[in-house]
Amino acid sequence: MKIISNPIKLKNYLKTIDKTIGFIPTMGALHEGHLTLIREAKKENDFIVVSIFVNPTQFSADEDLDKYPRRDDADKKICELAGVDILFFPHVDDIYSEDEVSISSPNIRGYVLEGFTRPSHFNGVLTVVNKLLNIVNPSRAYFGKKDAQQLNLIELMVKQLFMNVEIVAVNTVRDVDGLALSSRNIYLSKEQRNKALLIPNSLNLASNLIKNGELNSKNIIQKMRDFLDDLEILYIEILDREFNQIKNVKLKDTIILVEVKVANTRLLDNLWL
Ligand code: PAF
Q: I need a labelling partner for 63 at 20 to 30 A (CA). Which of 117, 142, 234, 249 fits?
């Protein structure tokens, strides 16, 4: 595995590769969720590039940028063992300069749900993903369904900017207890983790309600709210795949999204129907 930190060097190197390139952008602290993205990418592409870059522009001043878990040595080993061909490991100065062109997230879809409580977040995500895709120029790029709004906005950016890459959505990976894997889970104490398990359980509750014929979004959301009463709920929404609110669940065209705060840790999860 080659480790490259200079974007131009990487771009020039990749120009010489006459293979399909699968790309997995990450912020490091790699876990089984990332490994699943890598495995999916390996099934469909001949050459695999992973990036590790804790992107400062997607954190606001009061967020956890300084505390964000960094496990550089372990991450390099994990990538090597997973059969990654190139690990792109840039420094902030390799990606950003002082006077920056940046991408804005759309005024509606970028400012609801997570974008409502973190207004500049998706500008940062889209800007860095745009840069990374331009550097790597992959055939396909892989993103987890856990970050459903991020995935939706990246798909929208690729479509609206006529970008030449296929975005592949990969199912959420869960721990044995049901909690969706996230690099932020390490912030949770044992007691907080137990509380956090209410999140996947609230989605199971929704799934059971739907199986028993309850399709009304308002009723399902209210039952989930009651169930999650002990936690600080940031939002619970029932949307179609285009991210429009829907009065009734439509099978094969619905996502139930939930975000809560456990202590200071924001935890996202969702159910795709
Ligand atoms: O999902 C993430 O890890 C990040 O938001 C991403 C897509 C790597 C952009 O920094």
A: 142
Expressed in angstroms and rounded, the spacing between residue 214 Cα and the centre of ligand 1 is 35
Q: Kindly report, as residue ranges, where domains of CATH 3.40.50.620 are found in the chain.
A: 2-170
Q: Which tens digit of pLDDT belongs to each residue from 117-163?
A: 899 999 999 999 999 999 999 999 999 999 999 999 999 999 999 99
- Cα 209 to ligand 1 centre (Å): 33
Ligand 1: atom nearest CA of 183 is 3
Atom index in ligand 1 nearest the CA of residue 58 equals 10
Q: What is the CATH number of domain 183-267?
A: 3.30.1300.10
Query: What b/e sequence results for 135-159 when a residue is b if at least 16 CB atoms lie within 10 Å of its CB, and e otherwise?
Result: bbbbbbbbbbbbbbbbbbbbebbbe
What are the tens digits of pLDDT across the range 98-111? Answer: 999 989 999 999 99
